[in-house]
Amino acid sequence: MSQPEPSRPDASADEPTQQTDIVRDRQTLEAELEVVREENRRLRESYAHAKRATFRRTATGFFAVGGLSLIASFVFPTLQTIFIAFGGTGVFAGIVTFYLTPERFVSASVSDTVFDTLADVEQHLIRELELQTEAVYVPTTARPETNACLFVPQHVEYAVPDPEQLGDLFVTSGTEAEQGISLCPTGDRLYAEFAETMSGKFGSDPDAIATQLAAALSEQFELVDDTTIETDGENRTASIAIDNPAFGDIHQLDHPIVSLLAVGFATGLGRPVTVDTRDDERFSAVVTVSWDELEQPSAPSNGATAQEQETTPAPESG
Rounded to an integer, what distance in angstroms lies between the CA atom of residue 255 and that of residue 187? Predict the structure, then answer.
């Protein structure tokens, strides 16, 4: 007598249920993602509003000081000149602070991430092309759209190409020693902005250049907390020690701080410069800019070779 086979669960009946669960899970995840996005948007707006409120409270304080000083100038006629000066200064500072309140704030972590990505792309390009790690900043006075170009040579014994050849990414039009790639330095736009807002003339000697660029780093762009300068005219180098630099690792290729210093020195001195970074226990890092002459390696001419052959004594016949 045959026994009835045990009934098997109908897989086809479970498929609609599983698909329904997947759809529900996806809808739940999409809803949660939208909630997170909305919360992030709200937090960014709250942060920006708090920053703007801080600036506007500061402006209100300046207005209050200015108004009270002007009122005091009428109450105390003997000190009228002093109070009017305080009042004018307070009102002016309030107006400037109120109208220069930034509308958008970019956190330091976002800036670091953006530059790290750019540095990774450049490093990957250099590795793939088997280029050297040397970075040469070449002034480009013949090209008004840029102040300098970043030349990365292909060979250890290299020569700096003519600035007119640095308009393309791949530099192949010169001699073999001049081959490499040409990049736009990250410090080129920073230097252009620095030059536009600079009062007076940009220096042409290393001491003046280092002083002006260090002030731009710490005061204008606020990329470092403090700087210490040491120039060596005999060895044609300038070392700038920096504290608490922005944009992450200072040793990365074409770091904005290093790039601004290099572009500034190359433009001010009118010659190519190289840079080197090192750690120091007294500072966060030390950037050394060198402007020694970078000459093309000389190959012996045909005439010299022929003369050498002529002066070589012929072997005596036995």
Answer: 8
